[in-house]
Amino acid sequence: QVQLVESGGGLVQAGGSLRLSCAASGRTFSTYRMGWFRQAPGKEREFVLAINWRSGSTFYGVSAKGRFTISRDYAKNTVYLQMNSLKPEDTAVYYCASTAGNSDYSGLSSYDYWGQGTQVTVSS
Q: How far apart are CA 38 and CA 65, in angstroms?
């Protein structure tokens, strides 16, 4: 089992920045990839970014390109989502996820473990 705990969400004005953190614990040695997803009210959960835990290779969703970056701290078992130039449409609950597999990096079903989510609200 892997436990994921997100933090860093909050209220920010449009154009501002936030950094989300996701701390992993438990059987993290088997982690191959970690990702960030988000879900806005009334919408489906969508892929934002992912990173291969050991190699550091990154994968970007459409909404993230040019504004968001993902990174990890290997020693702290933590992955970060840096969000810049935030827009009201970025308002959502952001979820961290992890997987031991190497299937579709953007697919919800590819991930084995999920955090509880952290709310990000961007005001106009």
A: 15
Between CA 107 and CA 115 the distance in angstroms is 16
Return the structure tokens found at 31.
Answer: 């982690």
For the chain, the residue count is 124
Give yes or no for a contact between 112 and 101, defined as CB atoms under 8 angstroms apart.
yes
Query: Is there a contact between 98 and 48 (Cβ–Cβ < 8 Å)?
Result: no
CB-based contacts of 6, cutoff 8 Å, min separation 6: 20, 21, 22, 94, 95, 96, 115, 116, 117, 118
77 Cβ contact list (under 8 Å, min separation 6) = 23, 24, 25, 28
Q: Which two structure tokens, joined as six digits, stand for 45?
A: 């959960």
- Find residue 30's DSSP bridge partners: none
Q: Which amino acid is at 39?
A: Q
Residue 102 identity (one-letter amino acid): N
pLDDT digits (tens, 9 = 90+) for 20-46: 999 999 988 888 999 999 999 999 999
